[in-house]
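User: I'm new to structure prediction. If I give you an amino acid sequence, what do you actually give back? Let's try with this one:
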Amino acid sequence: MVNDHAYIIVDIGTGNVRVAAATPAGEVLGVAREDIVYVKDPLYPDSIYFEPEQLWQQVLRLAKQVIPDGRVKAITATSQREGIVLLSAEGESLIGLPNIDHRGREWEHIMADKSRVYQLTGRYPTSLFSAMKLVGIRERRPEIWAKTASFLSISNWIEYKLSGISRYEHSQASETLLYDVAKKQWSPELCAVFGLSPALLPPIAASATILGPIRPGVAKELQLRDDVQIVVGGGDTQLAIKSTRPAVDDMVIVSGTTTPIVKLTGTYTLDDDERTWTSRDIEDGRFVFEANAGVTGLNYQRLKEIFYPNEGYDVIEQELAANTHTFCMASLGSLLADEEVALTRGGFIFPAPVSHLLTRGSFVWATILDIACSIVKNYRILAEVAGHQPDYIWGCGGGLQSKVLRQIIANLTGKKVQMRRSFQQSSAIGGALICNEALQVNVEMDGSTETVYPQDEAYYADLYAEWEKTRNHFRNMN
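Assistant: Good question. You get back a string of structure tokens that encode the predicted 3D arrangement of the chain. For your 478 residues, that looks like this:
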């Protein structure tokens, strides 16, 4: 019976590793998480890495906590999109390089024609992307480079550890700078740009492809049947998008540690000003046209630790809803697609002397407004380039648990903001949908939505203008 099935979804984020169990209907049965352990690499100014075997042991440990007895039919994985693991010819996992590793930054000059790279890859090339991480290893870690025969995205590496089969999925390949997004294949031209051999590149596989059964040793370790199937997943943003079940031309806000804002398109779309990213979606024939508001969720989490260390988010929401004083404004380093240089200074601005009306809620409200305004600015850039006709925007991810944030986004865009049930667990639900496709399981998922309608648009337009002034103030300080 389908109702007795369960899937395991491994999710390697920027800050933590999560393992979830979910049913084919998208019910999340359990989630376990641990922080990823990063190590600074002293050979580079801005570089960290992780030990792959340590991460693998975390995955095994967490999986044991959530696996339901005798019910698991498939396992899939998703991860931060620019992170990679280097492999030797013997299959040894050499080093893990997360998305926040910038060891290739001092060699960005090797890209003589960055506009050409943008045309092929759909993103303006920087040290964020995987090819530059490989260059950094080649240039300063020869002992690792001499052993390197291949590399995988972190999620594809998890699937390799589970199945023994090495494949790179299309949405993840889009983040490497070595993949022609329009042609849907690895690019010899791009390999030549970075001086990297095409022999490094694994075969490509589509999301929802079955790699094969779980390796016997892993099945024994996890006390699973040996017929559990390992399924190709995809980038974490793409799995989150899938959970909303959107259509081409829909916009989706994926609010987590960072906040991608995306439009789903049926054609390869580029921005003449090179401000956006275009990736392959995990749905065949569909592209993800994206701007990213940066570390919005991380800012919120850190300020919660300062102002509300012992209270839950429900207390914050109550105080935000009661806040009627909007004189405190913030700019905290969110990213805008039309800014060439990120803000390196930020803070709060409020009238002096300090008012008795200023509370901890004032600071968090200003943070929420900053997040909302940066999301909306990026949304407007996408809409300017590619248009957006529907009267709604989809939202998913834990960051949108804040009703205040959802309401401000609706007020500023003039669009309804819609969330599916369990939108906070979007990656797990997207993983369940992928496993359903792979196993050809037909099940009706809950189609109910929660909708926030725009209000007070003129008032919030004035607040948006004040936010822009605040951002410009800190811009002038950089």
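You can read the tokens as a compact description of the fold. Here is one thing that stands out. The mean pLDDT is 95.
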